[in-house]
Amino acid sequence: MTASTLDVPAPTGTVGEPVLEIENLSVDYGYTDDATHVLRDVSLTLHRGEVLGLAGESGCGKSTLAYAATRLLPPPGLITSGSVHFTGRDGQRTDVLRQSDAELRASRWQDTAIVFQGAMNSLNPVYRIGRQIADGILAHRPGMRRKEAWDQAASLLEMVGINADRLRDFPHQLSGGMRQRVMIAMALALDPQVLIMDEPTTALDVVMQRQIVEEIADLRERLGFSVVFITHDVSLLIEIADRIAIMYAGDIVEDAGAQDVYRRPRHPYSAALLHSFPPLRGERRELTGIPGSPPDMQKMPPGCPFAPRCAHVTDVCRQVRPVLGPTALADRGGREAERSVACHLHDADLEGIDGTLPADLAR
Amino acid sequence: MRFAVRRTIFYLITAWAAVTINFLIPRLMPGDPVTALMGRMQGRIDSNAEESIRVLFGLDTGASVWQQYVDYWGLLLRGDLGLSFTFFPTPVSEIVQQALPWTIGLVGVATIISFTLGTGIGVAIGWRRGTWADALLPITTFFSAVPYFWLGLIAITVFSVTLGWFPSSGSYDRGLVPTWSWEFVGSVIYYGFLPALTVVLSSIAGWILGMRNMLVTVSSEDYVTVAHAKGLPERRVMVGYAARNAILPQVSNFALSLGFVVGGTLIMEMVFSYQGIGYTLFQAVNTQDYPLMQGCFLVITLAVLGANIIADFVYAALDPRARQEG
Amino acid sequence: MAQDTTFTEEQAAPERAVEHDVDDPRRAKRFLFLRNGKALTGLGILLFFGILAVVGPWIAPYDPNQVSADLLQPPSWSHWLGTDHTGRDILSQIVVGTRGVLVVGLIAGVSATVLGVIVGVTAGFIGGMGDETLSALSNVFLVIPQLPLIIIIAGQLPTAGGVTVALVIGITGWAWGARVMRAQTLSLRKRDFVEAARANGERTWRLVLAEVLPNLTAIIAAGFVGTVTFAVMSQVTLAFIGITPVSDWNWGTILFWAQNNLALQRGAWWWFVPAGLCIALLGMALTLVNFGIDEFVNPRLRSTGMNARLLRRRRIRPRIGFTPVLRTPPDGRPDVGTTARTTRKERS
Ligand SMILES: Nc1ncnc2c1ncn2[C@@H]1O[C@H](COP(=O)(O)OP(=O)(O)O)[C@@H](O)[C@H]1O
Ligand SMILES: [Mg+2]
Q1: Are residues A88 and A231 in the same domain?
Q2: Same-domain status, A94 and A153
Q3: A150 and A171 both lie in a single domain
Q4: Residues A97, A213: one domain?
Q5: Starting from the edge strand earliest in sequence, which strands make up the sheet with A36-47, in order?
Q6: pLDDT digits 0-9 by tens, C246-304
Q7: What is the dihedral angle through the alpha carbons of C206, C207, C209, C213, rounded to the nearest 10 degrees?
Q8: Both A107 and A227 in a single domain?
Q9: Which residue owns the Cα nearest ligand 1 atom 27?
Q10: Region Disordered: start and end of each range (chain C) (predicted)?
Q11: Which end of chain A is more exposed for a tag (fewer CB within 10 A), N or C?
Q12: pLDDT class for C15, splitting at 50, 70, 90?
């Protein structure tokens, strides 16, 4: 029960089945009537063995979504409705939002582990890192001896490329990249089925970013967990994600295969976002930022939140809020039918929309 | 061990500063009350003791200030603090030596109890933020604003005058001989209970509020959320992650506010006529016994300095970052 | 907090982290402070004592020094708070004594704050050896117990009247403020706008006055309030142990007379309870103002919306690590966003 568990992928259930289903999740900040409604009926499904990228500008609610789905959102966060179903290896489906504290505590880290935004503050500064990895293990393996847990922590560290004698270091003795690796090792300690990573590379330099991303991809191959990879940098996702969901102002505006989003964005925001990052590899293209800034969530205008910044805005966009649905090109068949987008341009039934997409959204 | 060296230098400087302040105060004061008193004591002070007092209070206007300063240090290093006027001809050092253990016993023990208890309660209240526990805050705030000595007055009125449970003054039954007997120790505890209780009651509020605020602040750190995400038991998160970090600033505040707290609690000795340094200082002030005043101040400062050193060690033991070299 | 320095970041709004202050920036910050219930309560009490300090001598029913035949009388209609052992009216002593307490508190507070700001900001700004020296000096003053120091200084002064005591308190009590001020200045100094002003070759003292000090207002205010609290307590304590002239009326003097004339043993509670309560009330008001400032500076301490009754009604238990889930949606709240939304799949 030490290193061996890490190398042999555990039985992971059927690949492609949903493992985490977020349905109509709504989240407020504040408990009073003037609370900020940050998420409104957000739905998102993570499939077994999949790497799902979640991208969008800062402040669009990516972290909120991840923390709400695990019920780790700090006060004044409040989940006002929705469900989050987790399907275990045995096929049992549970609603995380209805679990009692004890059930939640027992399932955490075993089912879903998180790597937080900013590894700098994720480690307790006064405990040795070995102890911090081991106490997570011991909390879920009541019979295990301390020594065993430390041994396991050592092999976890080696798995992410850190020498095991670092176990006795304190967090302040490690570099930023090392701390992030420690966090990843810690998250994998109990062989979770879902790993949520919130901007795991943001604070790191480009070289370190690449290393970590490659390492995550590599570990996933070996261990077979599913990943939600959150970042504001879409170009990183092309490297690692199978599927990408783009968020804007608390809504998922596009959800499709990674290559599809990258090469053929269907939402004006996705297109704009892709143009604001240099691709890690492949052809160089001209960078253009997105004019304007995201709306203030405290007073959201009616209609599409992206309307004020959108190049293709129509009258209906300013009045009716679009919801996720099939693209206008769904009849192309194939992968196109599996995509969804929240944009009125794709809805020919609406008044003032003729059903022909602008060229950059119809590739 | 750069940390230790730095701290040692700091403490040496502080000790030097305290002594120097003690040297300067009587010399900077307008008027010359000591000369007048010496006049009254004419003939009763032997020449040796008179010499000490002259050095301590700068009456040797003939010598240069530097020479006075050197002589002053010479006296201190020999443990000569002059003679008390009030308890003539007892040396100040002897009086101080007798009073100090009582103060350390009363103020020291009560302060430690207060700090420990207050920190614990602060953790409990801070962790249950937004519940009934918040209702304790206004009461705590009130207690933190009550002057120490007034709480002493109230305690005497209630517990000794009205209820008659505890004596209102003194530190042990005067009918007993001070020895290490059960009877005597029991009497000391009995007499010390009320003053200690008052010290605890009046200083605990500050520790509670400080720790509560630190805990609230630390609880929103990422590593606390990580601990929850790991599914650790609630107690472990609260103690090992939140409180364990929140206590660091609490300990350094303890060191820094020690002077303040000790100052306040010394007044309690005056209210209870408890035979420690505070009460001695009070008597000295009332009888204008300048050598005794100076001696008390010096000893109080050095004692607080000592407590600071201990607090520093505790801090270094608690925080690995402080121990780091360089 | 992770630092986002990528391309979009410069154009998008700066990231507002979960714990960040997310109040509407358009609401002026000043009003935020005044909306704080604690600060308001504290300021209200302070205002009351302030008025009392000004008009006290005129509205006091008696001359506080006027002896009468009503010796040690409990509260009655003619003496609302009773009389002392020589028949002097205690209410009048309290009312007249308010001025002494506040004046000393104010003078000491102002002098200590000015000293603290000068030392702290200078230390933080010049850095190097000067900083080391000044920091060591303030640390020394922090370690030396103030009250005994004040006692021996005041005890050796021939006349230790109110103003003298206030100045002594100010001169010994600046260290805490200096320490906080230095830390803040250090962190401010590295901020962009100060660096920018520096690069533009602005004069140092102008820089300090125009860029640094305004940003320290809250901290300075907190230090000031803290020092006033300490000054009031010290002064009352000194009066109580009889170091300051017992003819200067303040609340401590009343307690001095009470203690020395066996008020406790005689059960004359009206003699020492009201004066002590006044001190506690004033102290509490100052503490509340400081809480207000603390919450203003540290948003994590703010309890916005944490109204216990409201939370109970909505069955919310705000906790870290276990986000509450609303089970019964409160009535009357419009379900935002869903009215205009029908699924496209349903329609087609
Ligand atoms: N405590 C809070 N109170 C009110 N609004 C908040 C709070 N924390 C975050 N928000 C808002 O929620 C939105 C989403 O934030 P977040 O989930 O951190 O975005 P992301 O992770 O995509 O950068 C932001 O617009 C932010 O302003
Ligand atoms: Mg985020």
Answers
A1: yes
A2: no
A3: yes
A4: yes
A5: A36-47, A18-29, A77-87, A93-95
A6: 777 888 888 888 888 877 778 788 888 888 899 889 988 888 888 888 777 776 676 65
A7: 180
A8: yes
A9: C16
A10: 1-21, 322-348
A11: N
A12: very low
Q: Which residues neighbour B149 within 8 Å (Cβ) at sequence distance 6 or greater? A: B267, B268, B270, B271, C237, C240, C255
Residue B208 in tokens: 């509670």
pLDDT tens for A258-315 read 888 888 888 888 888 887 766 555 555 556 667 777 888 888 888 888 888 888 888 8
Distance (Å) from the alpha carbon of C208 to chain B's nearest alpha carbon: 28
Ligand minimally distant from the alpha carbon of residue A29: 1
Chain B closest-CA separation from residue C205 CA (Å): 30
> Please, are residues B222 and C1 in contact by the beta-carbon 8 Å criterion?
no
Residues A81 and A131 grouped into a single domain = no
In angstroms, the separation between the Cα of residue A340 and the nearest Cα of chain B is: 32
Alpha carbon of A323 to ligand 1 centroid (Å): 21
Do A157 and A264 have their domain in common? Answer: no
The answer to whether position A106 is within a domain reads yes
- Beta bridge partners, A177, equal none
Domain ranges of chain C: 83-297
Residues on chain C touching A319 (C-beta within 8 angstroms):
340
pLDDT for B284 beyond 60: yes
Q: Which residue has the higher pLDDT, C192 or B165?
A: B165
Contact C344 A325 (CB under 8 A): yes
Q: How many interface pairs between B and C have CB atoms less than 8 angstroms apart?
A: 188
On whether any CB of chain C is under 8 Å from the CB of A97, the answer is yes
Range of the domain at A141: 123-189
Instruction: Report whether A319 contacts C341 (CB < 8 A).
Output: no
Of A252, A278, A298, which one is at a domain's C-terminal end?
A: A298
* Domains contained in chain B, number: 1
Closest CA to A238 of A282, A198, A271: A282
User: Cα dihedral angle (B236, B240, B246, B247), rounded to 10 degrees?
Assistant: 120
Decide if A108 and B236 are in contact by the 8 Å CB cutoff. no
Smallest Cβ–Cβ distance between C143 and the set B31, B147, B304 belongs to B304
Query: Do the domain assignments include residue B270?
Result: yes
Longest pairwise C-alpha distance within chain A = 69
* B71 within a domain of the structure (yes/no): no
Per-residue pLDDT at B187 exceeds 60 = yes
Q: B206, B144 in Cβ contact below 8 A?
A: yes
Taking the Cβ of residue A277 and every Cβ of chain B, the question of whether any pair is shorter than 8 Å is answered with no
Angle at B253 between CA B250 and CA B255, to 5 degrees: 115
Secondary structure (H, E, C), chain B:
CHHHHHHHHHHHHHHHHHHHHHHHHHHHCCCCHHHHHHHHCCCCCCHHHHHHHHHHHCCCCCCCHHHHHHHHHHHHHCCCCCECCCCCCCEHHHHHHHHHHHHHHHHHHHHHHHHHHHHHHHHHHHHCCCCHHHHHHHHHHHHHHCCHHHHHHHHHHHHHHHCCCCCCCCCCCCCCCCCCCHHHHHHHHHHHHHHHHHHHHHHHHHHHHHHHHHHHHHHCCHHHHHHHHCCCCHHHHHHHHHHHHHHHHHHHHHHHHHHHHHHHHHHHHHHCCCCCHHHHHHHHHHCCCHHHHHHHHHHHHHHHHHHHHHHHHHHHHHCHHHHCCC
The reply to whether B325 falls in a domain is no
Q: Specify the CATH number of the domain C83-297.
A: 1.10.3720.10
The ipTM assigned to this model is: 0.86
pLDDT band at A46 (very low <50, low <70, confident <90, very high): very high
| Domain CATH number, residue B156 | 1.10.3720.10
Q: Within this chain, do residues A172 and A46 fall inside the same structural domain, yes or no?
A: no
Q: Does C325 touch chain A (CB under 8 A)?
A: yes
Residue B112 CA to residue C342 CA, distance in Å, equals 65
CB contacts, 8 Å: C3 with chain A = 202-203
Residue B210: domain span = 92-318
| Residue A6 covered by a domain | yes
Distance, in Å, from the CA atom of C71 to the CA atom of C56, rounded to the nearest integer, reads 24
